[in-house]
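ingest -> validate -> predict -> emit
validate: passed (alphabet ok, no gaps, 136 aa)
predict: started
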Amino acid sequence: AGTIADLVVGSPEFSTLLSAVKAADLVETLSGEGPFTVFAPTNFAFDKVPADALNGLLADKDALTGTLLRHVVPGAALQGKDVPPGSTPLKTAGGDEITVERSQFIKVKSASAEAYVTKFDIIASNGVIHAIDTVI
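emit:
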């Protein structure tokens, strides 16, 4: 498998995420050794963000970087089967804490939003990607 960055590049459902990752200069980070767990917002997730807010975010590199790093958990390639029932707090690459909740579904919560995992365990050479339906 390619790196997380390679898989995002090769997947049409992540084209908005790819643009954001490029704008924040994070392609190299996501090509790094890892392991990383990435909760990757799909284009559908980005479509929920009002255009003005999204364009503002894409133009503000610091805010964009902070938002994107909130979706990356360093030091582990956490697959769906590794998430225990209940709530599990995780420290993100940006220093924020998110919570992964497992019940019938797996939900990811940040201080600002919550998302459901829509596609699990996209395995990369340096970690794992889970597609999510909302930008957290």
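Helices lie at 4-9, 15-23, 27-30, 43-47, 51-59, 61-69.
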